[in-house]
Design goal:
By secondary structure, this protein is an alpha/beta fold. It has 5 helices and 9 strands, in the order ββαβαβαβαβαβββ. A hairpin with a 5-residue loop joins β8 and β9. It is globular, with a radius of gyration of 17 Å.
């Protein structure tokens, strides 16, 4: 942490820097070149295409911390490479997030409503509680897949999620900035797989 420049690639000039969001105490600074960032976006796009997780017809809402620049930037760049429409709301009041997810869209070549939500399990829990309190149900949304990361997903969250959004596919991922771009995806049996 005291010597972040010691981890720069020799002979390369960094063009992007970010701080870790999950570090206890002082965040760790990380640096990347433009070529590295472009490569990460391309690899993520290939991964999402191979998994069938994102298509060019999708509308993707990113409800994660605006400070998570590395993960958000690579994810959003991959969505754009695939051809999906992507936008970031950040962590806002759950009622606002739900209203955006329920909002009909009339965008040529895209689904009628947001079809993918990327967020954290704890925030999804807040969305579920707020949605039930406000009387939302599966007919109000077009969500098909929810991409979760940063925290452990419980069986209870998954069960309650289906009551609000219907039979959605949940993709669970794991990654840490310090080991970027190594990240994993949990399969249905709970095994961590690395693309």
């Amino acid at each position: 942490r005291q010597m972040p420049a010691a981890f720069l690639r020799r002979g390369q000039t960094p063009t992007f820097s970010t701080l870790t969001t999950g570090t206890t105490g002082t965040p760790t600074a990380l640096f990347f070149t433009a070529q590295e960032m472009a490569t990460y976006v391309a690899l993520a796009a290939i991964s999402f295409l191979l998994q069938g997780a994102i298509s060019d017809e999708d509308i993707v809402q990113v409800s994660t911390s605006a400070r998570a620049l590395l993960g958000n930037g690579v994810f959003m760049g991959a969505c754009q490479r695939v051809g999906a429409l992507v936008y970031q709301t950040g962590i806002i009041e759950p009622a606002q997030t739900l209203a955006l997810l329920a909002e009909p869209r009339a965008i040529p070549g895209k689904k009628a409503r947001p079809s993918i939500l990327m967020t954290y399990p704890s925030y999804l829990g807040k969305l579920i509680e707020t949605g039930q309190r406000l009387g939302y149900g599966p007919a109000d949304f077009g969500i098909e897949r929810i991409i979760l990361g940063g925290e452990i997903v419980t069986a209870g969250i998954k069960r309650r999620c289906a009551a609000l959004f219907g039979p959605v596919t949940i993709h669970e991922g794991y990654g840490i900035s310090e080991a970027w771009p190594v990240g994993g995806t949990l399969c249905e049996q709970g095994h961590l797989h690395f693309d």
